[in-house]
Design goal:
By secondary structure, this protein is mainly α. Helix content is 57%, strand content 0%. The protein contains nine helices and no strands. The chain is elongated, with a radius of gyration of 23 Å.
Length: 196
């Protein structure tokens, strides 16, 4: 850059640097003063909520776009196994047909989506969420403790649940394996081919 070009751009570069410095100072003041209330019983501002919601949706969509659901996602066996896992691991927050709000679900912010209601998500996006969790939402990363097959079972169930009555939901949950170790295939090879 020659001297004339530098002289012409110096005011705009100075303005940009001052703007960045002021923005960083304001951000530091907000952070270190504790002005932002992180309490779960104090909602985000509308703009803050919209920003976080957009970031979450885009992040999930981008990371899930190369995931291919298994061909047998609607199989009754998958749905039944998913029902048992869901009832044990998910219903306390996400509820189910005819399931009353729990103390846990009432205390969450942001509130966990009620998965008995139709969701505007692909199976791949649901799988990604179950596997990786979502920061600052209390949604755990089940992929740390569960094989992909079982997470696809949960997806299969979650995708069917909005069409279920409370009686169908209870019947399906009751027909699932009796305990978590059985669902996880502890001590034997389960349907993903892994020993647990």
């Amino acid at each position: 850059m020659n001297k004339d070009t530098l002289r012409r751009h110096l005011p705009s570069m100075t303005f940009l640097m001052v703007t960045i410095a002021i923005s960083l100072s304001v951000a530091a003041a907000v952070i270190f003063s504790g002005a932002y209330n992180v309490a779960a019983d104090e909602p985000h501002t509308a703009a803050g909520f919209q920003l976080l919601d957009s970031v979450r949706e885009r992040s999930i969509a981008v990371r899930a776009r190369d995931i291919s659901p298994p061909a047998d996602l609607s199989s009754p066996k998958r749905i039944a196994i998913g029902a048992g896992l869901y009832a044990e691991m998910c219903s306390g927050c996400h509820l189910g047909p005819g399931v009353e709000r729990s103390e846990l679900s009432q205390g969450l912010y942001p509130r966990a989506p009620e998965l008995a209601r139709p969701q505007n998500m692909t199976a791949a996006e649901q799988f990604w969420i179950i596997k990786h969790g979502v920061k600052m939402s209390a949604m755990p990363a089940w992929g740390k403790t569960h094989p992909d097959q079982l997470m696809w079972d949960m997806v299969a169930f979650v995708r069917e649940m909005p069409s279920m009555s409370s009686a169908q939901y209870r019947t399906l949950v009751a027909s699932a394996p009796a305990d978590h170790d059985k669902m996880m295939g502890k001590g034997s090879e389960d349907h993903d081919g892994h020993m647990h």
